[in-house]
Amino acid sequence: MASLAIRRNHHHLFSLPYNILKWNSLSLRNIHSINLARSQSSPSPSQAELEFPVAGTKFLETFTEEFEIGSRKIVLETGKIARFANGAVVLGMDETKVLSAVTSAKGDSVKDFLPLTVDYQEKQFAQGVIPNTFMRREGAPKERELLCGRLIDRPIRPLFPAGFFHEVQVSANVLSSDGKQDPDVMAANATSAALMLSDIPWNGPIGMIRMGRICGKFIVNPSMDELTISDLNLVYACTKDKALMIDVQAREITERDLEAALKLAHVEAVKYIDPQVRLAGKAGKGKKEYKLSLVSKETYEKIRTMAEEPIKTIFTDPAYGKFERGEALENITRDIRKALEEECDEESLKVLPKTVDRVRKEVIRKRIIDEGCRLDGRRLDEVRPLYCEAGNLPVLHGSSLFSRGDTQVLCTVTLGAPGDAQRLESLVGPSTKRFMLHYSFPPFCINEVGKRGGLNRREVGHGTLAEKALLAVLPPEDDFPYAVRINSEVMASDGSTSMASVCGGSMALMDAGIPLREHVAGISVGLVTDVDPSTGSIKDYRILTDILGLEDHLGDMDFKVSGTRHGVTSIQLDIKPAGIPLDIICESLEPARKGRLQILDHMEREINAPRSQDDRNSPRLVILKYNNDAIRRLIGPLGVLKRKIEEETGARMSVSDGTLTVVAKNQAAMERVQEKIDFIVGREIEIGGTYKGIVTSIKEYGAFVEFNGGQQGLLHISELSHDPVSKISDVISIGQQVTLRCIGSDVRGNIKLSLKATQPQPRRTSNMAADFVSSTKETPKVWPPVNEVSNEQDKQESSMEDIPLHNENSDVASSSSSEILIRSAAECDEVEKSAGLVRNSKGRPKTLNNKRSDNKSKVVSPQKNDHDSPISAFDFFSSNYSSELRTDFQSSFRSSEIDNGNTSASRDVQNFKEAPAEAPINAKNLKIGSEVSAKVHQIRAHGLVLDLGGGLRGMYKFEMDGRKDFEVGEEIQVKCSSFSGKGIPVMSMLETD
């Protein structure tokens, strides 16, 4: 194979031309070095180089124009990119560059209108990003792209010559974006320059500018950051002396300030015009002779003679409605068609619809100019009859029905979670939009048959205009974090449906309970002019308030103005002639304001404040803060738990930066979803807080409950009920869901729960002893119980201490509280004196009895024994004895502070025994340091149950080497050394001499 490859190479070598073979003395390395030398220093090629066919250099002739507007440098460039287009211009501002290319169809036109298409596109490569779609391609045009296309279309369309019906396409593409400038205005200016360079007849150029206002100061070409704090976003397009298009979004700017902004914008926008003219002089093409589809003068006069009088008769009768008037006009056209068919006038038949429409336009305009009369008999500044209704669909969050004349719009409001906000994939601006207004224009609203497709440019434009108008009065996102969607469904259309959407949307928002600052209303103002055909100047004009659909079609201007009582929030101006003087537009602001105030009066009479919704249809929103681990538990693997909760409750949950936002349809649904969230994730535990949990295990001393996101708490037997409970399973069972209250925690942080705290307190009879204690001195200080431990031994000891040690025959009153009442020593002495408790000052006995005269008794600290000795409290107090001792002692017992030397250290046994005879020891007068004579009631493995007298029980724990040969009934001298966390007296042996 190797030899075959060599033979093939030799064959190719000898097949080369002779002039190549003479280079056999040069190696490939030498040839490469010669070429490199040529590219670096040698301007003249050698003889050998001339015999090689080398690629030539193509020189692209580029033309540029540089100028400055609003302290920003702008560059127009042509000749380098898109050379085959009829006209192509790249406009650059800072690092943002936009290409606009225009083309037109060849041949004669076969349509009776101008098929102008403007495509604006923002591809993600302009910011170095790959699209996050399945195909990794840009999909269908987004709303912003449609809106930018309309922004380019509206000012350039009126400047095409009358009768020019050839198809024209504009393609605007963002080549690079630094995110500082919005490319939409740049694309419009680039399109104007491209049309100037092309051979398409067009009466341009135009200039478009954006204006902002910060702290009362107007800013030319504001950046995106400046627009976020600006109260005005004005886009203005014009020729040298006339306005073509206005688009405004503002925060209640006054008409006077708006007029000043428009005049300043005109001065700045004109600065774009001269550079385009200069660029067209350098690189522009001559305008091509296109065939214009114009009606001959003879044909027009013939049709006008036949149609003018019948049209006047219809237009002078205000009894005609929209469809009655339209049907009558169709009958006129049908009659004229029959007459022309009988005459076989084919030329007139081709232009009949357009010519009749022109005659109608002249009749209406002349009547308005000369007589000041409109189609429906209204005055020029009169608003059509209004009908307002809010809350007509009570099941929804908010709804309204607004009618103005024959125009009717139904608006509905839907509230959602912040995660329901619309995600925007534009090169500039915010990434999400929480307020959305979707405008829908179904075919039935004009009694037509049609198909509903995808996004419609007109619907998107009208919806965005109404959205801008209402956005100014919405509460801040911090105060109202809901995502809001308004659906504006046009039920009937006879002009100004977008402004009706503003009025209906404002009422629906208040019906939904959204705290709007005030109502917003919108109105459309029209214009009819009388133009001198020779000079093109306006001789006379009339401004029309609240125009009909036919007045919009046959008039010169559709000036939509929305706002509150205090100022304008949005404007959209569309015109049909090649510009309108700015003074006339500014004059139209006052009729728009007066008409807006009339509409606001009607809206406020229907609803003038946000409505207070009931739980049935009012949504609820809760924002919860969790750490990342808790949120991961809630979402679950691949979001399974989150979706399950949403399906079961109907709520919507969204997670963002440690924040969980939940939106439910009503309060009942919100409570259900919060229960599920609390069970999975839990919330911060508060003493006194109520929680729902599941019983996981039952012990003799209580039950363990899982609650608040998997946490464990102890429900002690004493906290099950206000009544004594002998068997825990009689009250609760494993797996049962219970509502509990947190009553505290022990020293180790274990949570203590109570079931009886959630139950009503039973009525109890008054007790003289309890009343006596409660009446002493000032209000006592209350400490929470402690010494609840989590290990099994400590839990058993805790269960032992919970067993009341008061005899059933005791007359000591009980209380429902399990807290320890700490009294001062002075208070204890006062109580003792009042109760007649007398103590002897004699010394204690030297021996307890003859059997234990040689044993030394030591004071034992129960806190120390809890940890240092293996004594089990369960062994100390078995369940056999618990039923005998179950009383209300624990609730009624209150411990005392240590007696600072009030008892004598030299009392003998006899004197000490006599003291209880005078005043028996009970739970009220026993305090720390009290020395009593007790009897052994029971003997346990690790200690004694002592009868302290008066039905009071105490406990004594053996030391590690303590003797255990006690006898039941034996009397011993003990001293109260402390109280357990549940109020049980812990006794210690008195030392003997």
Automatic annotation (TrEMBL):
- Cited Pfam families: PNPase, RNase_PH, RNase_PH_C, S1
UniProt cross-references to InterPro entries, sorted A to Z: ExoRNase_PH_dom1, ExoRNase_PH_dom2, ExoRNase_PH_dom2_sf, KH_dom, KH_dom_type_1_sf, NA-bd_OB-fold, PNPase, PNPase/RNase_PH_dom_sf
> Region entry Disordered: which residue ranges?
758-818, 835-871
Q: Which residues form the S1 motif domain?
A: 688-756
- Write out the biased-composition intervals (Basic and acidic residues): 792-809
- Give the coiled coil ranges: none
Q: Which GO terms describe its molecular function?
A: 3'-5'-RNA exonuclease activity; polyribonucleotide nucleotidyltransferase activity; RNA binding
Q: Name one GO cellular component term.
A: mitochondrion
What broad class of enzyme is this?
transferase
One GO process term, biological-process aspect = rRNA processing
Q: Kindly list the places in or outside the cell where this protein is found, as annotated in its UniProt entry.
A: Mitochondrion
Q: Which reaction does it catalyse?
A: RNA(n+1) + phosphate = RNA(n) + a ribonucleoside 5'-diphosphate
Please list the residue ranges that the record marks as compositionally biased, kind Polar residues.
Answer: 758-777
What Enzyme Commission number(s) appear in the record?
2.7.7.8
Give the record's keywords alphabetically. Cytoplasm, Exonuclease, Hydrolase, Nuclease, Nucleotidyltransferase, Repeat, RNA-binding, rRNA processing, Transferase, tRNA processing
HAMAP family, sorted: PNPase
Q: Which family does it belong to?
A: Belongs to the polyribonucleotide nucleotidyltransferase family.
Supply the name of the protein: Polyribonucleotide nucleotidyltransferase 2, mitochondrial
Q: Which organism is it from?
A: Heracleum sosnowskyi
Its taxonomic placement starts with: Eukaryota, Viridiplantae, Streptophyta, Embryophyta, Tracheophyta
